[in-house]
Amino acid sequence: MKIYTKTGDRGETSLLGGQRVSKDALRIEAYGTVDELNSVLGIARAHKPTAEVDQILGLIQSDLFVLGADLAASGDRRAEKAQPIGGEHVARLEETIDVLQAKLPPLATFIIPGGSPLAAQLHLARTICRRAERLVVRLSKAENVDPSCTIYLNRLSDVLFVMARYANKVDGVPEIPWVSSPKS
């Protein structure tokens, strides 16, 4: 398979189903941001997380391919998809949150994103996930989008936050509480 096709040289690309759209279309921006998130999670995995966290991240990366394909599908191609993102995927994320959160001290204040290299990368992934969620919400106001996509991204950002906290705990890096500056 050739990597270059030259079909996008004029600023258009094809959705799954063949419809041609501008590369700056909101749908392209939404699934492109999901792809960006997936790549950032790959960088997080390169930081050698625990086997438990690595396995979770691997499942999430696989889910993001499914979610991206759903966002890239047009018309009847959506109905053809086997196993779209749905309630079982969201339930798995919620279970992950519960398991990891049980291993952490309660959160009493906002924390500054960062810490260990892995935790900092997971915080970056969380913010990209939030951007993807905002784009999917915007897209859903203009086009048909499965609501499960938005729900999944919302829950995923929570998972990434808890996972970043857990990574800091495993690495022995204390969280930095946010302290508001005094008013002058």
What does this structure look like?
It is globular and about 50 Å long. The chain has a domain at 16-74 and 112-170: Hypothetical Protein Ta1238, Chain: A (Up-down Bundle). It contains 6 helices and 2 strands; from the N terminus they run ββαααααα. The mean pLDDT is 88. A two-stranded antiparallel sheet has the order 1-2. The chain is mostly helical and 184 residues long.
Alpha plus pi helix count: 6
Order of strands in the sheet with the most strands? 1-2
Following the backbone from N to C, one meets helices and strands in this order, namely: EEHHHHHH
Poorly predicted sequence stretches spanning 5 or more consecutive residues? none
Helix content: 55-70%
Q: Calculate the mean pLDDT score and round it.
A: 88
Please tally the β strands and state the result.
2
Largest sheet: number of strands, sense, barrel closure: 2 strands, antiparallel
So, CATH architecture of the domain at 16-74 and 112-170?
Answer: Up-down Bundle
CATH fold assignment of the domain at 16-74 and 112-170:
Hypothetical Protein Ta1238, Chain: A
Instruction: Find the CATH superfamily of the domain at 16-74 and 112-170.
Output: Cobalamin adenosyltransferase-like
* Overall radius of gyration: 18 Å
Distance from first to last alpha carbon = 63 Å
Structural class: mainly alpha
